[in-house]
Amino acid sequence: MIDVARKERNYVDADYSVWSWFLTTDHKRVAILYLISITVFFMLGGAAAVLFRLELMTPQPDFVIPETYNKLFTLHGILMVFFYLIPSIPAVLGNFLLPLMIGAKDVAFPKLNLASWYVYMVGGVLTVAAIVFGGVDTGWTFYTPYSSTYGNSAVLLAGLGVFVVGFSSILTGINFLATIHTMRAPGLTWFRLPLFVWAHYATSLIIILGTPVVSITVLLVAVERLFGVGIFDPTLGGDPLLFQHLFWFYSHPAVYIMILPSMGVISEIIACFARKKVFGYHFIAFSSLAIALLGFLVWGHHMYVSGQSMYAGFVFSFLTMLVGVPSAIKVFNWTATLYKGQVSWTTPMMYALGFIGLFTIGGLTGLFLATLGIDVHVHDTYFVVAHFHYIMVGGASMGYLGGLHFWWPKMTGKMYPETWGRFSAIVVFVGFNLTFFPQFLLGYMGMPRRYHMYPEEFQVLNVMSTAGASIMGVGYLLPLGYLLWSLWYGKNATSNPWDARGLEWTIESPPTPHNFHEKPVVTTEVYDYDPEQPLPPPSERVVSPAESETETVQ
Amino acid sequence: MSATVEHADSSAGFLAHHFDDRAQQRQAAVIGMWAFLATEVLFFGGLFAGYSVYRFLYPEAWVEGSKHLDHVLGTINTAVLLTSSFTVVLAVRAVKRGEKDHLVRYLLTTIALASLFVVVKTYEYWVKFSHGTVPGAGFELHDLYDPSVSLNQVELFYGFYFVMTGLHAFHMVVGIVIFAVYTRLAQLGRYDENYHTPIEMIGLYWHLVDLIWVFLFPLLYLIDR
Amino acid sequence: MLGEFRLWPRAASTVAEKVDTLYLFEVAVTVFFTILICALVIGMGVIYRKGSRAARANPPTSKWLEAIWATVPLVLVMVMFAWGAAVFYEIKTVPDGAMKIDVVGKQWMWKLQHANGKREINELHVPVGRPVVLRMISDDVIHDFYVPAFRVKQDVVPGRYSQLWFEATEPGTYHLFCAEYCGTEHAQMIGKVVVMEERAFAEWLSGTSSDDPPAVAGEKLFERMRCGTCHKQGPGGRGPSLVGIAGKPVPLKGGGSVLADANYIRESIVRPQARIVAGYQPLMPAYPQLTTEELNQLVAYIESLGAPGDGDAGRSDTGPSTPVEDATPPDENEAPSTEGENE
After folding, report:
1. CATH code for position B95
2. What tens digit of pLDDT does each residue of C210-244 get?
3. Centroid of chain to Cα A533
4. A209 CB within 8 Å of a chain B CB
5. Residue B202: how many CB atoms within 10 A of its CB?
6. Number of domains in chain B
7. Does domain C214-314 have CATH number 1.10.760.10?
8. Do the Cβ atoms of A237 and B58 come within 8 Å?
């Protein structure tokens, strides 16, 4: 069987033509297409952030003019949210790994999968063109009536881009849902699924139920702009707050679209490098679903000071607080997984442990914002900015980077340089905290967000933040460099370099186009690690498919 | 390799390469379709939410706007659409029994009914356009039943009317195109009692489009009648 | 004063200290759990590092651990919710007899007007130790009136009034920010709140002002536009009498009733057909040509029409030392203070 495996070419080498990539229906190739395009959008969004952080070094507007500043943070917000954070883990790691983890040859609808990438690219090009050439300056939230009546008319095009990219998410979500439901290998029961799969299941539910609402909202803004229907325009009898309700009905769950997959990644990494089954597996699985469902009931916490009724504030505050419980359960369970484990401080593990710390801070500061009395003061200040960057960058991004390192050998067949990996993980962690921690202080001091100039007393903390951002920028450029380097010069990876469990590690690195040579049958429980056995040194970590825990059908 | 192995369509048995068997393939399609329908429901749900908010705020304007819609044509269209849903059911029944000729006939009937709906809808739009009853600069509405009503608010009603029925009509057109493709494939003998998932799926889609209209019709045409 | 480096905002209102106390409680919770989690992660990461001699037999799997770490956070967040809601209730509930100031936000400035007619731009002078309520509306997009030292903010929305109250406790000069992104010069939509001793404030307020108080200006406007032709001060007019309606429930045509607060009065001028008073025909035309400020004046005038008889006295002479009694019908979106007794 191994001989057969060695003879078949892997998915990269199977065909070198350009069209074999652009017309591929292989979930792994689609994942690579996404990886490349998401990296480009991430760099663009990051560059915008560097520019406006430079502006914020001084209280006066001296580096860019206000119009430019507003376009920069709009570009940063829209690209990072819609084109990086939402698709990053599902579309790259999820696409690549989901079928492998459940023992399938592909996702349920491979053509839709490819279509989703094209839709994503169309949306991305439209949006970038609208912002760069048209100069959209509404912020990523598109609040009416600024966006519908006053802002630049390129809002229409940017909105169209966001509308389009929503469908790329929907296609991915439908695909995952159908795949997880129907294509699990024999013996792979729901409670043998890796938590990564559970997280993506919950994420897909949110995508399917939430994305259409924001799509229709953005469409209504476009209709309002085009035809002058006053749906959100108070002078024509419309209600600008209705926009906020519809927008946040999606955009708050969207936060969980960004963080849940990352939580799935963290579970995989921690189990592998602690050599233990994740503590409280069922609790983590169900807390993902709980977060997904509660996420739809809390949108009003963005609107405590918008003019919504005080009693609505009470209800939304109460429900929002409840989200804290499943989140706390996850953190405690991950921490407990380390107890009596065999902890290896590898690069993915450092990202995962960094995630736990940063997510703890991000989650707890979320409670400040859920608390009505405090939110009145810190709403729309840098406190909010700091909080969601702790969740989005400290949480979602750390998970994405950790997962990228963890599965890099599987995706590319190459090992990344471990020393560089650890170094960059530390640089990102330090830079991140230096960037965003001062923003909590700024926020409580009262510095509003989206200000290109500010009173002098805020300068010291802003300079710290900018310094941190430059460190973080380096931390992000390092992986880009050494991961690319590893493609040519990295050591070849074995099928299972981490001695990890899970079906994706039972096949070659990189996998062949159809993943499994024979239908796998699962007979073992999930995360079947032995804490007594330390991770063997790399030289001894050659586990061939035949030796793996999974038997194959003869 | 994956690029060269086309899934599903041409080979005998119509089993895509990545599925184990037809049952699995069918189940995946069904779950995927229902998930898509859930998305559609929420898509229109946002519009229904906005509609409800403003109907609550401006009931008189909604009544006024509604009275200017042609409820006779609306009723005819409702009947046409419900009938087309019935012919789709017949088409699914036919393909499950392997009756190819019946399948093609029912699909063609469905297309005819759906096209009739779109034609009637287009006529209604044309009437509104020719009277200037279209949101935007120069919105006009003559022969008011309730002269005190605010035109701005009626314009808002027509905003919702055009967006909701327009999106619905868009779904109709997409459906007609898919029906046309499937009719051709059915003539070529693609579907039989063993393989008929696409017909069932387009049927589900069509029922949803129908269902949405069943909500749109009273909400737009029958206020205060 | 402004401009000096600090790590903690100045606290200068009655609610500021309460917000700070709650904040510090949550900071303590955050610090405790962050240190706990980080210590556990790093500690166990070291103790149970690969190949260490630590005992690994019988790792726990107990369900009661899960129960504990579901319950403790639940209790904590419920405390935060209840405490936060109590503080919020106070922030939202305007005390009786608050001094009233009109605020109009527009791209990109704040226009304020005191009850005696005195206007300010991007500056607000208020006395120390007296509740002040701002009735705010926007001319264009959504703005947000934010005074960090008072720990309060409120969105200023076009087309409807919102309100914000505070009681300053420390004389001084404080930042005023627009906290809702409103376009190019958003960051320049800033100003100062100057809190003065009562006497200094009275002196400042009585300084030269050529403007009529809003209610008086409203009255003139009311006469100029001949509103009184229909809205007679008594029964028999084609429109309802406006005397004494402010803050009272009004029966509506078609059943139901509405509280005649500032928002309803304003709506009835801008969109007269929206909610018709029972027993009247929808005859009134809309007045789209009125500016935001003129509307404010008309609303102020109608509100000043107290009980029949003293109706047109207005509140023209209302000085700062005689707060307008009950002249602030609560915003329909805010809790009326009387409803608070149900809490």
Report:
1. 1.20.120.80
2. 788 888 888 889 888 888 888 887 777 788 888 88
3. 32
4. yes
5. 21
6. 1
7. yes
8. yes
